[in-house]
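Researcher: Next entry in the queue.
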Amino acid sequence: MTEQQPLPYKSFDPTTFRKKPVSFVRRSGRMTPSQERAWADHHEKYVLDIAHGPAATSVADGERGDPEQIFGRTAPLVVEVGSGQGHAILHASQTRPDTNFLAIEVFRAGLARTIIRAEVAGVENLRLAEVNAPELLEKLYLIPI
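Model: Structure for this entry, 145 residues:
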């Protein structure tokens, strides 16, 4: 048996670690060509421009938002956490045009698929957020978590 060599010291940025647990695992992977096109062509219409903190899906301190300003109207707001590829929220947004919908998802390919479907359906009352849901609700919309 050989003596085990000590592992090399790894440096890391402690600000990328959260004080609270998150309820997701960030999946990465390649987007299909159609998803990449949809993201490039339409993400500005659907995806909220939220400043990120140190972690990839964190929300920067000081970020604030107003749903009425984001949607350009006063209407009830429904938030779906973990929207996946958007099946449920797209159906809901199509059947309730008098309501604003916000899909929160950390999987970009799922958001891109949602964008494709929203464009085909002509949905206007849907926005997407690529962030950690509790941070978005707490910081951006001032909902205590």
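Model: The mean pLDDT is 84.
Researcher: Noted, moving on.
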